[in-house]
Amino acid sequence: MTAPGLAGAGMTEAGMTEASAAGGGAGGVADGIGGWTRSGFVALVGRPNAGKSTLTNALVGEKVAITSSKPETTRRQIRGIIDRPGYQVVLVDTPGLHRPRTLLGQRLNDMVREALADVDLAVVCLPADQAIGPGDRFLLAALAPGLARVAAVTKTDKVTRAALAAKLVEVDALADWRAVTPVSAAGGPQGPGVAELAAVLGAAMPLGPRWYPPGQATDLEVEDRIAELVREAAIERVRDELPHSVAVVVDEMDLPHIHVSLYVERDSQKGIVIGRRGAGLKAIGSRARPGVEALVGRRVFLEIHVKVAKEWQRDPKALGRLGF
Ligand SMILES: Nc1nc2c(ncn2[C@@H]2O[C@H](COP(=O)(O)OP(=O)(O)OP(=O)(O)O)[C@@H](O)[C@H]2O)c(=O)[nH]1
Ligand SMILES: [Mg+2]
Description:
The protein is of the alpha/beta class. It is built from eleven helices and ten strands. The strands form two sheets. Strands 1, 2, 3, 4, 5, 6 and 7 form a seven-stranded mixed beta sheet that branches. Strands 8-9-10 form a three-stranded mixed beta sheet. Helix 7 runs antiparallel to helix 10.
């Protein structure tokens, strides 16, 4: 996951000359001492619904990851870039680590482990309004012993000050943290603790180049971001197991027309998504469109076709076709 040209994460000052000779990095924009800044990779991990993607967006200052009240929303590693004077932190938002029920679930957990193998630091997200459970302990045990870790106690707006104070004490005792930071990301970049957390991460990074040019918020292609926005809109409309059954692919961008396939796993689900006289599908399009239009900078027509890919969450071939 690290950028080419350097030996990997955790570069030291002693390695600077050699790294510099190996040539820059994607951005090539430098500041700080000798043209170097603090920069590195940080994985956001935690159980499903812990607030990882909401926090990623708040830290980046732009929506790069979709979010929802339903667990297991994130299905890939999503890089979100914090770029500030003196540092650049490449956040890697990950799927929630969970007990897998399907092949997809196993692959999502594998993605979390892969992300953790290649970062300078892990931010462990622990919701303030939830008790610390076996899932959190499992995750902590899975972190490599030498990996620096910061606890983000998320959703602090959901608890009283007294409950938050008790939670911070409890979290502090859980591991050898670089920092334990309370944060409320629902309000975006201005949310309590967001700027403080960004500064903690920036200061914890090794010296290095900017990996991404200023202004780039994510590594995702625009097609992938559109597919995710459509999936977010679909997840919002459906219940029970159906959010997990939805997968979205952008087939073609022929602006202003964008052709999108929305996959479900069974015929019965197809009917639910389309709704009476297409009302469900129309609602998904209306909900997704503003975000898509903001992304491509013009009016668009989202042409969403609902298709069935039988039991795709359990089928290795179908998973491959859908990019897992
Ligand atoms: N009140 C409040 N809600 C929050 C906050 N952060 C996240 N949420 C809500 O918590 C839910 C889950 O947020 P996500 O950011 O999607 O959580 P996640 O950890 O990325 O979830 P997965 O991708 O499924 O693992 C959403 O309904 C968010 O709106 C917060 O600071 N305050
Ligand atoms: Mg997420």
